[in-house]
Structure formats: C-alpha cells, structure tokens
Amino acid sequence: MAEQTLSSRILSDPPRAGLSCAEARATARGILAGLGASPTVADNVLTVVSEMVSNASRHAGDATAFKITAQSGTVTVEVSDRSPAPPRIQPWAPDVPGGFGWRLVNQLATTHVQLHRGGKTVTATLIAPTSPA
User: Fold this and answer.
1) Inter-axis angle of helices 21-35 and 39-60, to 10 degrees?
2) Before 14, cis peptide (omega within 30)?
3) Beta strand spans in 1-133 (E)
4) What does the pLDDT profile of the chain (133 residues) look like in tens digits?
5) What's the predicted TM-score (pTM) here?
6) Disulfide engineering: 131 pairs with which of 36, 78, 92, 115, CB 3.0-4.6 Å?
7) Which residue, among 89, 88, 81, has the nearest Cα to 121 in the 3D structure?
C-alpha cells in the first residue's frame, strides 16, 4: 500500500496559543475512523498523541507542528517544538505524580527524535492493522 496521509495539521509559526491535547485527539480520532483502526489501536494512538502534545507544552514551550500519517499498517505521530533538548525517561518513582509519559510512549511505539534548526521533531510509530474495506 502506498503512503497515504489521512490528515495533517501544521501549526502557524509562531503558534497562536499552542495545540491543545483535545485538538490533537480530535484530529487523531478523524484519522483513526478513516483508517478503520480497532478500539485498542485507537486507544494507543490517542494516548501517544496526548502524551506527546502534553510533553511539548509542558517541557518545550508548545508544539510548533503536528502531523499524523498512515502507511501500510502503521500510524506515525510527529510533534515538533522549539526545544533542542530531547525527551528523556524519568527515573522510576511510583510515589511521585507525573513523569511517566515518555516511558509510556516508548512502550506503545517506536520513537525517534530529530534535532533541527529551531528545535526538534519527535516521531512515534505504532503498529496499526486496518480493518478490511
């Protein structure tokens, strides 16, 4: 199957007020509906989208770009921001709230971080078998 971009949202530079997790999830839900993704795949993609956009907001001053691409049984989520600092897995501290997002993203997806002028792009690729048409 050739690559098919089901939806893409590129934020203006500078972003008006950043991308909210709710906006990103709504865009992802539309993509997943078009993909025919199972409820489990949809939950995993929505979790990754929420964590990545939330992390960009919390640790990097907001997302500057957001894109989701479906290709041959995978869904790829890309979030760009202005920080050159790569995400890092926090030490395990179950009694401390927060700090589990990047660990969770890495459990659900294959991740890659690309530094570029003006920040970085974090990419997460999930296996997403589609329903027969």
Assistant:
1) 150
2) yes
3) 4-9, 63-71, 74-81, 110-116, 119-127
4) 344 455 555 564 555 567 888 888 988 888 888 877 889 999 999 999 999 999 999 988 888 889 988 777 899 999 999 999 999 888 888 888 777 899 999 999 999 999 999 899 999 999 987 555 4
5) 0.85
6) 36
7) 81
